[in-house]
Amino acid sequence: MSVLRTTLLWISATILVLIPFCLAADFGGILHWSQYPAALGVLAAMVLSLIGLTDSTASSGLRQHKLLLPLGLLVLLAWFQSLTLPSGIVGLLSPGSQTAYSTWLDGLLSSPQQPSSHSISVSPTDTRHVALLLTFLLPLSFAASIVFHARNRLTMLLSAIAITGASVAILGFYRKLDPTADLWFFTSKSNAFAGFVNRNNAALMLNFGMAAGLGLLSWRMMALHSIELDDPDFEFNDLLSLISDRESFIGLLTSITCSAGLLVNGSRGGVVAAIFGLVVAFGYVRPRRGLIGLPILAVVIAISVAILTVPMQLNLETISRLELISANADTLQKDGRLLHWQDGWNAAVSYLPMGSGVSTYGYSYLPYQSQSPGSWFEHADNLWLEMFVETGLPGLVIAVLLFAILLRSLKRLSTSADPIDQGVRVAAWYAIAAVVVSQFFDFGLIMPANLFVAVILATAVVSRQVAGGGLQAPMPDEEDDPYHAMAMADPEYALAMAAEEQALEEAEPIQTKKTGNKIALRSETRLGRLTASIGAGAIAVIVLLVSVLAAPGLKADASSESLVRRIQHEYSGMKFRPEVLEEVESLLKENLAENPTVAAHVQLASTQRDRGRLAETLEWRPVSIEQAGEIYAKTNLNERELDYPPPLAAMTHDRLKSSVHYEDAWNSSLAGLPECPLSQALRATLVELQSVRETQPETAVAVQHLAKFYSTEPMRLMRLGRRAFMIGDYDAAAGILRDSTALRPDLTSRLMPLLRVNQTSLPLQKVIPENSRAIEIAAADVMLWDEPDQEFLQYATQNIQCNAQTNLASRAKCQALLSRIHFSLKQNEAAIKAGEEAIRMEPDEPRYRVQLIEQLLIMGNRPEALRHARMGRQSDPEDQRFQKFIDRIAELDRKEVLEPAIPRDENAPDIESILN
User: Fold this and answer.
1) Coil, strand or helix at 374
2) Which of 68, 623, 748, 821 is spaced 20 to 30 A from 838 at the CA atom?
């Protein structure tokens, strides 16, 4: 029985440590189809670990499972957020969520269609999935608590985590060295690293590997030399002597590899987290030990990293991305996170007290953004802010409770005389510091690979603390006791004493007692242990039952996501085959009937839209494949070049197939809104379809909503404004295009061709924002029009601020433009002044002087024109244009002297036509 029990516990431990390793190679475990097998693995590991309830070395009662309390509360919170509740109750618990299901659905859904009951979550299917996944943290923690209660399997855990982190680094090195590597777990994204899609997510796993590696070193240092790495008596020779030890070699090698990975993968936050992890693990938590070991360890690792990386000519991307080294570094001050966090905080306040729902941040912040630059923030790049938005005050309480349990356990574990407990302590302190710091700049902890490692390591800390951590270290007033001094100095003697005390305890249970400052290894009577075992068994049954019930939900989500992803991956090859699209539509409808996800709704609407586009192409009666291709290109809903419906509509009494498919896509988009009231994609589909449908009031509302959702993204606003113009919503188009160019004035040049041919629908002063750069670009284009807008040009002269330009060349160009505008408005004095200012700012640029001379000649001011022509010839003798101006002016003067003065013929050509 003992052999069977030991074997099953080792198998369970192996499964637990292999799951994060496999997930790390599979995009960090973000795909649902990889989460489902991982959940089954966790379930199997728990079932195997149940036999440990009969072993006193694996189970010490209920206290070792106390981490289940905050984890269970988190699971309950996620499930509660996904429940359907009356709208009034949701308004009390989360005002922002009620607004999402009411205000943001007004105008899109009729009153009967709007849900009177809905969840707190603004994307209940996403929250439900995460609740299912979080449920499996319970069996994970329960199994880890039993399996890693004993010290021998604890060493396996540290080694496995260290190797997992090192494997991520090695895969990352390989990808850097061979970017063309075509392995299934690699992606082509520039910010990917190893098997992770995001370099910062990978950096957290590297830090976990670093923590475990240092834990192994600390354990072996304590076991072999009775000294810790941060001890003032630590010597460099002690560290070198560990190389011949197998476990120490694993720790040293993985620490070096993970350090190199942190430098290569490009995550600045990962390096900062590593620095804090080292300081906290070796300095702050053990101040009496001093910091002498830290610089020595840093030097050893730095030299090792240099030896490892320099010969291979790897690009130390993390270093190159530091602002102190690179002027173009994309730091926190430049990447927009600080601005976005303001919007995130506003969203968090709006959803208090219960939050917007787990895994909903990408939608929940949209109505409250005003500062966020750039593209859509699916995550806040700050896990603590994201957690506060999604879980509100309950999430904050749960996080505090979890950290309190963990820190208390670490404090008690620090008194253990067992070397492995000191190794676990160092690893845990490093990991805590790395998580706390790195998640201020990232969200890597929500990756299942990282999350599972964190939960297993935290559970091991709590479980070992409850186990007593081997023998307890002497308290300060007992340090002179020879018994305790011997135990601390000789670990083997300490373990022997532990075994002897355990044998005595099994023979005769002792009562809970406290002798002086020494705490007994066991604190329960036989009856107490029996009660605790029954309680642990009851919890095991509950956890197992809940997990079994959650497994089918994960499987359904995995099937749904797999279907959608497979369709998206193969869609480019099937969208021109009507029979295949029909089958795809049927599959998506069946899937939505069982599991209504937002992604499936979006894909269904896209499929129905493309079916309509294919049908419409045939309805235009093409006579060849080439003509069909041309027609298909012109039916693009975003840039349509054909009117709808085709002429065939007037020849038949039946509805066109294209019209049916387009209407289906419209209805599918509306049907998905109750599942995700803040969805961008569903609203965008409505706007696209308006070009082939009669005017619908819902479209104008969708445009308004998207304008808010895209309010900080100039390119998307530009495209939205064009679509609004195409469907005839000119007022909305003008406002959206104005917002776009206000965010990015250089986009004005792309907008001017549209404004040139639609001056009535899109007046310049209504579209161009009060931005000097945007007005300058628009005015330069208007000057080329056959009939320039004089009113706008007058407006431009009052609002262009040339002094706002960053360099003299730009200011000179701006002044030259102002000179041309003033001249076209017959403001000659201002035109001369601006022209001379342009010359003064860039005297070596002849075109500004040439422009001014031409304007002076047209004005009839030949003396000033002659003066500037001579100055131009003097400054640039090789430019023959100035001599030609001088010759022409002289010829004009000569004719004026020789020919009698006659009345000016108004029909005679002016000087400008003569010169040109």
Assistant:
1) coil
2) 748
pLDDT digits (tens, 9 = 90+) for 232-285: 565 556 666 666 677 778 888 899 899 989 988 888 788 888 888 887 877 644
**DSSP letter (8 states) at residue 284:** I
DSSP-based three-state secondary structure for 772: helix
Tokens describing residue 180: 């063309």
Which residues, 6+ apart, have CB-to-CB distance to 272 below 8 Å? 437, 438, 441
| Tokens 């197998």 sit on residue | 246
Give the Cα separation of 156 and 16 in Å (integer).
Answer: 11
Tokens of 43: 């379930």
Distance from C-alpha of 352 to C-alpha of 93, rounded to nearest angstrom: 7
Query: Helix, strand, or coil here: 55?
Result: coil
Cβ pair 285, 300 in contact under 8 A = no
Q: pLDDT tens across 560-614, in order? A: 999 999 999 888 888 889 999 999 999 999 999 988 899 999 999 999 999 999 9
Contact criterion met (CB below 8 Å) for 518 and 475: yes
| Per-residue pLDDT tens digits for 475-501 | 444 334 434 434 444 444 455 455 545
* Residue of 422, 463, 514, 3 whose CA lies nearest to 214: 422
The SS3 of residue 106 is strand
Q: What are the φ and ψ backbone dihedral angles of 566, each rounded to 5 degrees?
A: -65, -40
Q: Give the Cβ contact number of residue 300 at 10 Å.
A: 16
363 — pLDDT class (breaks 50, 70, 90): very high
* pTM to 2 decimal places: 0.83
Q: Of 224, 756, 745, nearest to 490 (Cα)?
A: 224
- Token pair 């009666």 is found at 621
- Please give the distance of CA 696 from its chain centroid, rounded to a whole number: 35
